[in-house]
Design goal:
There is one protein chain. This protein is mostly helical and 103 residues long. It folds into two domains: 14-44; 45-95, no CATH class. It has four helices and two strands; from the N terminus they run H-E-E-H-H-H. A two-stranded antiparallel ribbon has the order 1-2. A hairpin with a 6-residue loop joins strand 1 and strand 2 (27-28). Helix 3 (68-75) runs antiparallel to helix 4.
Length: 103
């Protein structure tokens, strides 16, 4: 019978590093294969500055994401009152998605 420590060692030993495409989220076993896939499929990563590395467009702190100011404020450990103010500004001042199925 395996103990939990032995199971954790087996998972660590059997685990293999995979690289995920930021656009379509498919997995590749090497970084060079990931770059080849991105070039062949014309997938792009976002370099907006929300993160210090190229990332998936629309990630939490990406400038494309509507809630990016709130996520950045949470990352900077602002007080709850300041977070509520930012959230209220986002709700009241950010336009929503247009209704397409309204009849």
């Amino acid at each position: 019978m395996y103990t939990s420590l032995a199971r954790a060692d087996l998972t660590r030993a059997g685990a293999r590093r995979v690289f995920r495409c930021p656009d379509c989220r498919t997995r590749r076993v090497s970084f060079s294969l990931l770059l080849q896939h991105q070039k062949a499929a014309c997938h792009q990563v976002c370099k907006c500055g929300g993160y210090h590395y190229p990332h998936r467009p629309g990630s939490h702190c990406c400038d494309i994401n509507i809630d990016a100011p709130l996520h950045r404020a949470m990352r900077e450990n602002l007080t709850d009152e300041e977070l509520w103010d930012i959230q209220l500004d986002l709700v009241l001042l950010t336009p929503g998605k247009p209704m397409t199925k309204w009849e």
